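URGENT: need a sanity check before tomorrow's submission.

F., can you look over the Lipoprotein record below? I want to be sure the sequence and structure line up before it goes out.
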Amino acid sequence: MKLALLMGVIVTFVTSCFTSGYDAKPGVPKKDQ
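Structure tokens as predicted:
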């Protein structure tokens, strides 16, 4: 159970990093969020 929860958190974190990277460059504030 703990492993599944940990994997879920990791996947969510990595996905958010990729999506934020595609939407805007690092250090540049997003216009719409």
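My own read: Residues 6 and 12 are 10 Å apart (CA to CA). The chain has a mean pLDDT of 76. If you see anything odd, call me.
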